[in-house]
Design a protein that fits this description.
By secondary structure, this protein is an alpha/beta fold. It has one domain: TIM Barrel. Helices cover 43% and strands 15% of the residues. The chain has an eight-stranded parallel beta barrel with strand order 1-2-3-4-5-6-7-8, surrounded by five helices. Bound molecules: 2-phosphoglycolic acid. The site of 2-phosphoglycolic acid has 13 residues, from strand 8.
Length: 252
């Protein structure tokens, strides 16, 4: 059985003070949540504040990126050992905003994934998804397959156990235009079938594939009823405790 994951990607929002307040409210409202794992991915500057705020709870700390080297002359970057030390257990990589604005490629995503696998305790949330133009021209399956092949290049079946995928159609991110649950399910199924061909059916059945793109309290339940949707990567709706808590407490 795949335990669902609801991950909040705070993006470039919340000062440390605001982060503390939000984490506190989420901790209070999440209670002893056991039907899913809940990840909070604040900006780097708020990681340690959120880490101390959620200590002793089941909430999991995540970061929004990681560099592939453990240390060195890479101004402005953060490494996996630094994230582990602060209490991170999950790292988002390859988000479409990084691909779009910061030159992220499948090759650099792959290097980051490998750095995460080198660490003792981090898991990766690897984001993939097509643009509107790619969807409309009907090549989205090809794009997804290309991203999967590049991002997961060189990984073993064992490595796959530490990978979480997030299908995030770019046209649905921050636009209020969610993929319908059926549209998302169709891609999730294709992702699992690709994983099965590459890594075997058993491994493919264990990987959690999250959906992301305008996930809100009013569409989470329907999304979670799809057989291959194992959770959500939430942007806008994770910035308010009430809406994020409603999403965590989805009714599948
Ligand atoms: P959104 O963002 O929920 O605001 O669409 C999702 C994401 O970018 O991970």
């Amino acid at each position: 059985m795949r335990i669902p994951i609801i991950a909040g990607n705070w993006k470039m929002h919340k000062t440390t003070q605001e982060a503390r307040e939000l984490a506190r409210k989420i901790k209070a409202g999440a209670g002893e949540v056991s039907h899913c794992q809940v990840v909070l991915a604040p900006p780097f500057t708020a990681l340690s504040t959120v880490a101390s705020e959620i200590k002793g709870s089941k909430l999991i700390l995540g970061s929004q990126n990681v560099h592939w080297e453990p240390k060195g002359a890479f101004t402005g970057e953060i490494s996996a050992p630094m994230l582990e030390e602060i209490g991170c257990r999950v790292t988002i990589v390859g988000h479409s905003e990084r691909r779009q604005h910061f030159g992220e490629t499948d090759e650099t995503v792959n290097r980051r994934v490998k750095a995460i696998l080198q660490s003792a305790s981090l898991q990766a949330i690897v984001c993939i998804g097509e643009t509107l133009a790619q969807r409309e021209s009907g090549i989205y399956h090809q794009i997804i397959t290309q991203q999967l092949a590049g991002d997961l290049d060189g990984l073993t079946r064992q490595d796959l156990l530490r990978i979480i995928l997030a299908y995030e159609p770019v046209w649905a991110i921050g636009t209020g235009r969610t993929a319908s649950p059926e549209t998302a399910q169709e891609v999730h199924e294709a992702i699992r079938s690709w994983l099965s061909q590459k890594f075997g059916n058993e491994a493919a059945q264990t990987v959690r594939v999250l959906y992301g793109g305008s996930v809100k309290p009013d569409n989470i339940d329907h999304l979670m009823r799809q057989p291959d949707i194992d959770g959500a990567l939430v942007g806008g709706a994770c910035l308010e405790a009430d809406s994020f808590l409603r999403i965590i407490h989805f009714k599948a």
